[in-house]
Amino acid sequence: MKVGIIGLPQTGKKTLFQILTGNEITDPAKAFNPVPGTADILDSRFDRLVEMYAPKKETKARLDLVLLPKMEAETISKGDIFKEISDMDAICHVVRAFEDEAVYHAEGSVDALRDFDMVNSELVMHDQIFVEKRIERLSAMVKKIKDEDQKKELVLMEKMLAHLEQELPLRLLELSEDEEKLIRSYPFITLKKLVVAVNVGEDDLGNTDILDAFKDSCDALAIEAMLVSAKVEAEIAMLDSAEEKQEFLEDLGITSTALETLTALCLKSLNLISFFTVGEDEVRQWLVRKEAKAPTAAGVIHSDLERGFIRAEVFKYDELMELGSEAELKKNGKFYVEGKDYVVQDGDILNIRFSV
Predict the structure, then answer these.
(1) How far apart (Å, rounded) are the C-alpha atoms in residues 131 and 187?
(2) Which of 18, 152, 181, 344 is most solvent-facing, going by the fewest CB within 10 Å?
(3) pLDDT digits 0-9 by tens, 117-132
């Protein structure tokens, strides 16, 4: 599952990518090519479980990120950027809201809402052009050969075009299962979930007015939005110890890093949740599709566990933190035994019983 990071030039997207992945980009040529990387999922629950169990090994879940070329006149006119975006499973759009005279802005001034709307319009326009070309081709084909599937697709394309002409993304369009199958292989961008990271200066990290300005648009377009300060996150990343990082956050009045929020929103956009396995040997975080049942989660750990699944022993992260130990959970009836139909919840701690 890949999240593509996009944005106009000088928005801070490269800085965020470097902090998340640890990949330092020094080659200017890479600005015109996708740069892949992986990021640890930042989750304070994992850190607390490690503190509690003091395991020999700790393994965080990871997220595939791709820094995509900056969206500017050249890359947009060539169209390659849209093909690269269409290969992603979700998109993180970094929008600049910080003022810095030393960092130029392609449009001559900082206006986060203007830039947000402009990029959204480009994405909608890409899908609209594709649909228009597809309608033209299907119309010609249907005249020559009376094919029912092509007729159905033509009706669907006309429905999609009417939607896109209202400057609305396709993720807002209700599609049946059959309609989804018809377009599954097509490079539609606005069907994908979108997270907007508004990159602000340190002084604006707690400025709710900035996010409020995006609220109506984001709610209407099914977009998740958050504030992040790439500059502050870079400073946090340079600190050596967890204690120093926590002290820095407290001085700024921040409960968790913006990158923790960002990775959580990326998981949400991909429809993924976290579950954990714990013990003296290892504490590990795993990712699974929301609404997945216990055998599917077992299969994420190892295919044998899914194949030979018997039951899942489950306890809840919040209840473990409240009661302090597995022994106390058992005493209080908070240790659950679940079967094949159990739907795994975010934050579940699982122990899989199986026989192969």
Answers:
(1) 10
(2) 181
(3) 999 999 999 999 999 9
Q: What is the pLDDT of residue 29?
A: 62
Give the model confidence (pLDDT) of 181-228 as tens digits: 999 999 999 999 999 999 999 888 888 899 999 999 999 999 999 999
In angstroms, the CA 96 to CA 240 distance is 28
> How many CB atoms are closer than 10 A to CB 328?
14
Do 308 and 278 touch, CB atoms closer than 8 A?
Answer: no
Class of domain 2-105+192-269: alpha beta
The continuous run of DSSP H or E covering 143 comes out as helix 112-144
Report the distance separating Cα 344 and Cα 348, nearest Å: 7
Tokens of 2: 């890949």
DSSP state letter for 192: S
- Six-digit token pair at 143? 């005249």
Indicate if the pLDDT at residue 28 is higher than 70.
Answer: no
* 2-105+192-269 and 291-354, same CATH topology: no
Calculate the alpha carbon distances from 153 to 43, 92, 140 in Å.
43, 30, 13
CATH fold of the domain at 291-354: Ubiquitin-like (UB roll) (3.10.20)
CA dihedral 50, 18, 273, 54 (to 10 degrees): -10
Instruction: Read off φ and ψ for residue 312, nearest 5 degrees.
Output: -120, 125
In angstroms, the Cα distances linking 103 to 55, 118, 131, 145, 311 are 45, 20, 38, 57, 57
The residue assigned the tokens 């010609």 is 140
Q: Which residues contact 144 (CB under 8 A, 6 or more apart)?
A: none
